[in-house]
Records
---
Amino acid sequence: MSELRHRVKDGEVSSSDEKPPPQSNPESEDDELPPGADLSTTRQLSQSSDKTTEALDSALKGLNPRWRNWIIRGIFSWAMIFFFFLIIYLGPLALVIVTLMVQIKCFHEIITIGYIVYKSFNLPWFRMLSWYFLFTSNYFFYGESLIQYFGVLLQRTEFLRPLVSYHRFISFSLYVAGFVGFVVSLKKKHYLKQFTLFGWTHVTLLIVVTQSHLIIQNVFEGLIWLLVPVSMIICNDIMAYMFGFFFGKTPLIKLSPKKTWEGFIGGALSTVLFGLALSYFLVQFDYFVCPISYDDVNNKISYECERHPVFILTEVNLPTVAQKIFSVFGIPWKTITLYPFMLHSISMSLFASVIGPFGGFFASGFKRAFKIKDFGDTIPGHGGIMDRFDCQFLMATFVHVYYTSFIRAPNPQKILQSIWLLTTEEQIQIYNTLREKLTLRGLILDRATNT
Amino acid sequence: MSELRHRVKDGEVSSSDEKPPPQSNPESEDDELPPGADLSTTRQLSQSSDKTTEALDSALKGLNPRWRNWIIRGIFSWAMIFFFFLIIYLGPLALVIVTLMVQIKCFHEIITIGYIVYKSFNLPWFRMLSWYFLFTSNYFFYGESLIQYFGVLLQRTEFLRPLVSYHRFISFSLYVAGFVGFVVSLKKKHYLKQFTLFGWTHVTLLIVVTQSHLIIQNVFEGLIWLLVPVSMIICNDIMAYMFGFFFGKTPLIKLSPKKTWEGFIGGALSTVLFGLALSYFLVQFDYFVCPISYDDVNNKISYECERHPVFILTEVNLPTVAQKIFSVFGIPWKTITLYPFMLHSISMSLFASVIGPFGGFFASGFKRAFKIKDFGDTIPGHGGIMDRFDCQFLMATFVHVYYTSFIRAPNPQKILQSIWLLTTEEQIQIYNTLREKLTLRGLILDRATNT
């Protein structure tokens, strides 16, 4: 979970939301150690995570550590928010690059934990392989996205054409080369370590690379599909913290003892309201709602579009229950005029506040399992990048699936794109089949002939 | 690797291809196990793997164990081959069901090793979750395949329609429910175990489910895409063993000390020749070369088709080098008439014999890492199902990627299928756009008007 957390009032304030289990009682944990694992070394991760920029440190050295930490955390929170706006201003390409950088850093943080836990610093060749797998999977996923959205454009450049046509084969060959490399690199004394880290690498790829690829697909579908969910997670975190701080009484889940039902419900309601407002605001701008596509006529990347119906003001019938409720208050509303996207934003808000936190619980549990406080020390006062993105990944996947299931539907434009990738004869063949079938069904008058 | 292995002549014969490292010298291995490691329990897997059907055992009790094992292994080899032919005779549906069963059994074997190694039999709720994840990923992948090949058919059945339209959303929801279940099931003392097994489950899904899904896709594209590669792997194993047995001298790879260069090269050459012959034979029958599709006109599943060009006799120009070689022998061949599929079979043979074995090396290394002899004891004399399928999975993925990259190309039929899933208006819209663009390019004469 990102940003601040809701805590029971009497809970102590710490720089990280989830403290590792008390070190004073290691026996109760150690009986569960699986083969190959050695957690004594992971403390080097926890210890380094309080490192912060030295200039700031010296400027604040007069303050007590608790306040110093709050100030550092605050400064870097605002820095991140500013950075976020800057990237949005810079546009989709910047967002794609930043997503890639975040992904690489998250991969680095998780993989480093694996190296430390399984003491694999004596396997340099293997560590290179992990990065190689990161490269191949990115090559595959980014390639897929680029081909899907800009296939026609890429096909025009002579030297890119084979890369487009044989993208999957090339990606697979690259992966297999890594796989063979892994088998060749197996060393008798390190089998167990190597297989464990092979699995570790692949689970990390599954979590980080596939999901960050979905973030990029969301960006391509229109900036709003990134901005709204990302902001919702941040909003829910802050508001759940606030509600928990002021009204929190009833504990929510054992895994995160500081979470309360009051924070949970307050966060959810705030996120729904915030999501509606943000959606209403962003929907006004073509820049946010248009998918990024290649404009075949003007030969440039286009940020304009014919708006998808969810981004057009629509009169929606109120459910009878709602009509009755309004009529009790003497309001005779039978319909309401809104952007349908706002209704979808409610689904996203609910996911962000009900299921989203489980991404954070999962990350907390993971950190506890390996007795580390944070994933890294990239952002002073916040921990690692992964600590701030744990819920964003799951949210991005939800939005992607939601979008493809309820919004996109089979897209005539996409189908046309794939038709233009065919040979001329096949294009004519499709045209003729379409003409025949549509004529048979009486939908068009058949007077066309093809040469 | 499946079936028999090639071994250096003086190597001893064992029931399994890869013997675990000698137990007499455990120190050399155990120094890789950091504190907490416990592989002692895995021996219960190795020990149980020689269990065989009792009736056979008692019938053969007069023989010495080595011969008894050979006979049992032989009987079950032939039983498997017979079973294989039977399934092919029964057709694609039987193949899909058997693939699913094999996949479930492989999953079971791998996951059981995880449970034993990480002593997780005290986590019953978690073990159920593994199976739940197996179910959700199969639901997702099988659904994707069915929709891709029979979408139009499925759409016709009223109650299936939402399952088709929202397939990804439903699959994602099912998965997320499991994910939340995992987080909720986390128990303080078992974090590390639970996360390790969570990873173990997902890597197993990645290896077994995704790849077996590709096997099924291959079946849908035509039985030949399954039969040829599966037979190649078997042929390569047997022939590499034979060549190794009779001519083997030069060791190939440390990981499998019984493998020799002679076996490797002999196996590869035999597989290429065998692949050519088998391809030539199978190509004669529509039953093997036709993709399975839904015949919209006759309203039934169709095993007939207009043959793909690779399955039609074609005159191919010989490369100049080959022409020169033939002319040295006084043969003036400039072209050769063959089924292009036979050329593709050479690529597959080479993969089966050069890269394929690495699937087996990988499995061997895995078994050594966890000090087990076989994955299970499902097939008497052979070990677990996974022991026989380790190379088949990688091969299936190769064939799938190869097929989609070099054979399928964007398929007008597939595109038409996706057009019929659109609304009538969208179909007309596509028709009109096609008409305009094709008219502009002078490819059709525009005299059509739509109502």
---
Amino acid sequence: MSRSLNFNAFGVDIHTGQTTIGVWAPSSKEVRVHVENGDVIDLKEAGFGFWSANTEKIKDGTLYKVALDQESALPDPASRFQPQGVHGYSQAIDLSKRNWSDQQWHNLALEDYLIYELHVGTFTSDGTFDGVVGKLDHLIELGVNAIEIMPVAQFPGERNWGYDGVFPFAVQASYGGPRALQRLVDACHRKGIAVILDVVYNHVGPEGNYLESYGPFFTDKYHTPWGKAINVDDAYCDGVRQFILENMRMWFRDFHIDALRLDAVHAIKDYGAKHILAAMREQLDELSAVSGKPYYLIGECDLNDVRYITPVNEGGYGLHAQWIDEFHHALRVTVGEPRNGYYADFEPLIHLAKSFRDGYVYDGTYSPHRKKTFGNKASEASGSQFVVFSQNHDQIGNRMLGERSSALYSEGLQKVMATAVLASPYIPMLFMGEEYGEKKPFLYFVSHTDEELAEAVRKGRRAEFKDFHGEEDAPDPMAVATYEQSKLNWSALDESNHREIFTFYKRLIQLRKKYEAWHRLDRKHINVEVCSDSGVLLL
Amino acid sequence: MSRSLNFNAFGVDIHTGQTTIGVWAPSSKEVRVHVENGDVIDLKEAGFGFWSANTEKIKDGTLYKVALDQESALPDPASRFQPQGVHGYSQAIDLSKRNWSDQQWHNLALEDYLIYELHVGTFTSDGTFDGVVGKLDHLIELGVNAIEIMPVAQFPGERNWGYDGVFPFAVQASYGGPRALQRLVDACHRKGIAVILDVVYNHVGPEGNYLESYGPFFTDKYHTPWGKAINVDDAYCDGVRQFILENMRMWFRDFHIDALRLDAVHAIKDYGAKHILAAMREQLDELSAVSGKPYYLIGECDLNDVRYITPVNEGGYGLHAQWIDEFHHALRVTVGEPRNGYYADFEPLIHLAKSFRDGYVYDGTYSPHRKKTFGNKASEASGSQFVVFSQNHDQIGNRMLGERSSALYSEGLQKVMATAVLASPYIPMLFMGEEYGEKKPFLYFVSHTDEELAEAVRKGRRAEFKDFHGEEDAPDPMAVATYEQSKLNWSALDESNHREIFTFYKRLIQLRKKYEAWHRLDRKHINVEVCSDSGVLLL
């Protein structure tokens, strides 16, 4: 009895003239799809907890819900579109309809990536994918060649960083939905820009999580900062793993995404014989073989464990690259950040030099802040396996007042930080607005529609910063003003001091592209010297 | 600031003329040792939560307790001896005192091991290590060359399988204590028998767990069948890891143990950059380099993940070998075991053949009982990396009535099972009494002194088997009779039918030793064929 699971239909899949619908509901005895017009479709059990049907009652644009065991109908966990928000009808979308114009596009080598992280909602006044399209020429002038889009999976309301997404297959309606994302990627590719999408496989948001109604998507074997862990190694995990794998395939296949940035992979707890990340890498390589295009997986990882970026056949989990927050922390204390919280672990200059040399600062050494020995050596990893930055959405937005570097440091220090990142033997990443010294904050904002939850988030946020600023100061994450305040002020680019910073960034990027020593990510050819007396670090 | 932890003193360490005492108590502000005669010793902080003192007030045999922050004095978590039980005084023991006579002994190659698992308390009527010494000639006559001793860490009362141990450094007093274990190992070595000790690093027992009073030995990041997991990767884990590593070193260094059997390594959850098992292996190799003797780590592992037995430098955790329960399950259903519970996953003959060929039966295939795809391939692993058996303490004792194979199967089938194990390309293991078809059961027994706990265990045991046998049938685990019933009846060896089985086992072992095809653990040279119609499996 050696059965294996090969059923990948999640949600509605529209081919030419035919629609398949698939639902994973391993505990249900009956699964029905309720179309908005009153039609009902009975699904048949297809084994391993999967239910499916071929139907002509669902077409591109049809609104529907799913009813389990004659309970109230719910949105489809694999919905491709939630035009009415997280609690409303799911809408069938034929993702194959787009006439792509990016046939000439070929993904860049990972080591050539110059990344620009952006949040769709606050990048332009529109707050949409089409708004982003309007700014691509600015990015080309700047010289970056890859945008990294913060998560776009449907979240409650219209204002969210994206990490509260609850429909991993549905592109946020207020950003323009799936077709608008396809348009953006197509436009990027025509202009020679790669697209990285930030995706969250370690938790789902607190409002609109219908996954739990469908099956054991979660396990209490492990605790994460968001509660129960996503079930990738407990009973019934095959369905969850297929859900994740199919979601990954969808982005590359149907949206032409070039790379995924995987949120907090350290919180994906997998003690099975094949780690879900390794399974993802294997499937990615299969996709690459079919399309003939390289694709990449980049993890956010807070473990300093080289296993995550080691090839699968060498016992690793096979990520192409990972973020390295320690470079950021070391850089920040070097330019004067007070050594509180996790910054307490970092020494100016010395640790920055360490990160330039070795990637991980803590690589088998005792971390006083973590109260344990931490990390292992990444000396054999290539420079292209690490993404570095002097600020990102988290480092800015997790400050109570969301101050960017421009609000904290002199222009001189901003330039020092930019140089440290863009002259590093790693993949550099900027955060939107950084390139012209945007002064507006990037605050923490949400728009939960569940009042109780909204109040809990408000309170939590106030409590988090109480010791530092007193209760009254924390901006209300639920307020529209908090969101509006966080939108970029593009008119700043017309002012000479901002223009000067922009010119500096442009020039640095030109230098990085021009000189081999700047863009060859081979750390063995880099010599790092520290002169502590004068505060100078020589590369 | 790159500090590292190099302090390994746990408990009392007596050198010539000097005694060091070390206590890990990272939250305490004051640590004192109270000697039974009224002397008090102040310990000094030594960094990283360690406290220590050199003293002349503690000598070989001194009774003492430890007081934290002027609370009631407690036994030492690293006590070497608890002569008054788990709640009593700890006793200082100079483990270096023994005059060892095993200088000629050199550990066997792992592939030559023929293991005999025994439980000290029920192996002889004495129930002591000295009792075991008296039976070594029987084992030599049988032909095995390694004994595996079920856990001996001090547990509550005098009757326990050993998995409720709470003092990992203290050898069970009722078995004879540490000096008697040294005598046993010495005697084994003089007779050419290796000694494997079963140790438990995944949990401690429910009574007498003073570890929690001393420091964060546990973490709630993970759930295990025993509740909170041992903290090997959370804050303060360095102290816990050193505790485990020093415990491992003690067995090899001070007791001349040849190999450790690590209980349920799948329940040791470690997401740090160096898995505790890999750290153990590295330290073991250092010990080997110093002593010039090979030592082995053998894990009980229920994950079918070859990572556990892959070398550390290839991304593995470095165990030399692991138990393989699936061989047992496949063998049992082949001889007629009803396919209930986990046996439901196994098919007669076909799965036994699979295990002969590949080790793991589920190696990336869907397991209906576990409700998930399970395992990876172990095809590159050597046969000497797997320990197989047709019964062991768990498989027998976890039956309500503790029946051995001899109470369940005909003599013919017992011989078939013995042949399957002893002709396998793996390391064979017998369970005490199996070699002569002992008819007495091996029951589950405990002797907790905490009445509430004892009653809870009683109830739990009854509930576990209620569906099968009705409440009244489950033997009382607390009853002395349950323990006495489980003791081997050596006089059976005088009866001809038992003698015949014994002769059969002897002969099989002789054949295994004589023929290269039987003892060469190279699975690539073995051809396994199944003839399902006739129920024949050809090797």
